[in-house]
Design goal:
The chain is 44% helix and 16% strand. It has 499 residues and is α+β, with helices and mostly antiparallel strands. The chain has a five-stranded antiparallel β-sheet, with helices on both faces. The chain has a five-stranded antiparallel β-sheet with strand order 7-6-10-9-8, with helices on one face. It has a four-stranded mixed β-sheet with strand order 13-12-11-16.
């Protein structure tokens, strides 16, 4: 009987033995570069590609330990999924007992915080590291339902040899993500895992439905907290006596405002800030309240014509972004997004950003999630959607270097370009832009016969090991120039290394 790897859970369970042997053959063929009897499912082949790119060893089954047993109680008590664990337990633990599975809940990094199920299955899970405190993200342990659901942001089932790591070929699992109803951020995943032949036909649908119910429960809790916050603090809003104002949750979400209709859905309040710039240019005062904030706009405040000012320094040791005088913490991915949007002021769609960040394997859903987090950090006045674009006055060192080259000001370009653009980036479009900028600068300093520009370039990271640059410096610098012996010493060292 021939079974396709794209079968549903119900079809998979009809002949698990045949499916097991076929998937083993597919796994071995794909990883060895041989001819496969059938293609892996797209979600599996993409996950294998990501996992192998992260240097996961298919023969190694040791997930990293993030938390010790004595740390778990504190970690669980602080995690938002703690509020829905009784609901998840009621829905899944009984099924897990009957179908010989374990129920698992992780955080957003893929670290297992809760695991419950039959004692004998838990013992088997312990033997392969499927236990509380271990991290199951794809880049840590390869393709698995928990890690793959985190990446794809969708329910997923991983069956037998669809796991990249061979140790887990006798296991099957299904997982679904759970999101924060307030911010939209992923809180973690809910998973059911068990031994191969105990697969329940509807387990992936059940886990997906449980995740949706958990999100609904969290939303009702959020709405209750909003109502309590409004009831407690509405007198503060009423007391403004005609001034514009709004009540905010701790995350900046507006739950009441006067007048209606002129407010965004959310206002980012930096830690310790006593005022904030609104999207229309007005400056609002921030007053902490029990459980949130009151933001008010004094009557004298006038809508400012200026837009937010965003300064990007991406040609250095670390990327730095400064928004209206305050530094914005950045991840490398956020810096890549800002660089691409600065290079394309007309804007880019999620699909275009996914291609430029990840190549053909890019997932627009992943980009949208990152943009959502970045917009929450920068504020809606700084970044717009449809398409995604910056709505700030942008100053960027890499844009300044490009402009200087275009104007023929080689000295200014060399002074600006002290290092490659986001040197740690693997994003294809960022790497291409960085390469083109350095190549254009090198050609310019070698072609303009300006020893000062050439010297500046030689002190930069791109020019420090450039043999031709130092040969030109030794030839062109006057004998009395104190820089000449420095260049000659560096040239001798480079020639020795080259030889």
């Amino acid at each position: 009987m021939k079974v396709k790897t794209t079968s549903t859970a119900a079809e998979l369970s009809a002949n698990p033995s045949a499916q097991f042997h076929l998937l083993q053959q597919v796994h071995d063929a794909v990883l060895s570069g041989g001819k496969s009897p059938a293609p892996p499912r797209p979600v599996i082949s993409e996950s294998w590609r990501r996992s192998l790119a992260a240097h996961v060893d298919p023969e190694d089954f040791r997930p990293p330990v993030v938390y010790r047993p004595d740390e778990m109680a504190d970690v669980r008590s602080a995690h938002p999924l703690r509020a829905v664990l009784p609901l998840v337990r009621d829905l899944l633990v009984g099924i897990a007992d009957e179908s010989r599975h374990v129920m698992i809940a992780t955080d957003a990094e893929g670290t297992i915080l809760w695991r419950e199920g039959p004692a004998d299955i838990c013992r088997r899970a312990d033997q392969v590291g499927l236990c509380e405190g271990t991290r199951w993200a794809e880049d840590a342990i390869g393709t698995n339902a928990m890690g793959t659901a985190l990446v794809t942001d969708a329910p997923v089932q991983i069956y037998s040899a669809e796991h990249l790591v061979r140790t887990y070929h006798t296991w099957t699992c299904a997982a679904a993500p759970v999101h924060d109803p307030d911010t939209g951020d992923m809180l973690g995943v809910i998973d059911v895992s068990g031994l191969l032949y105990a697969l329940h036909p509807a387990v992936v649908s059940l886990v997906g439905a449980t995740a949706q119910l958990a999100e609904g429960h969290l939303r009702r809790r959020m709405e209750l907290h909003d109502e309590l916050l409004r009831a407690r603090n509405m007198p503060h809003l009423a007391g403004l006596r005609g001034e514009a104002g709004a009540l905010l949750t701790p995350t900046g979400r507006i739950i009441a405002a006067e007048p209606h209709g002129r407010w965004p859905a959310r206002i980012l309040i930096p830690a310790g800030a006593d005022r904030v710039l609104l999207g229309d240019g007005r400056e609002a005062l921030v007053e902490p309240l029990p459980g949130g904030y009151l933001v008010r706009v004094p009557r004298s405040a006038r809508a400012a014509a200026r837009r937010p000012k965003l300064s990007l320094s991406f040609l250095g040791d670390r990327p730095v972004a400064v928004l209206d005088g305050r530094e914005v913490p950045l991840t490398l991915r956020w810096a890549e997004l800002l660089a691409l949007l600065a290079l394309h002021p007309a804007g880019l769609t999620a699909e275009q950003l996914a291609l430029q960040l990840y190549g053909d394997d890019g997932n627009p859903a992943t980009v949208r999630a990152e943009i959502h987090r970045l917009r929450a950090r920068l504020g809606a006045a700084t970044m717009r959607a449809k398409p995604y674009r910056l709505r700030a006055d942008v100053e960027a060192d890499f844009l300044a270097a490009r402009a200087a080259l275009g104007a023929g000001d080689v000295r200014a370009a060399a002074a600006a370009c002290r290092a490659p653009l986001l040197s740690g980036s693997e994003a294809p479009a960022v790497r291409a832009e960085g390469y083109q900028l350095v190549a254009a600068l090198r050609a310019a300093v070698l072609g303009h016969r300006d020893p000062d520009a050439l010297w500046t370039y030689a002190q930069s990271e791109p020019g420090a090991d450039d043999l031709e640059v130092f040969e030109r410096l030794v030839r062109d610098l006057p004998a009395h120039d104190p820089r000449r012996p420095v260049a000659a010493t560096r040239l001798a060292w480079l020639l020795a290394e080259d030889g």
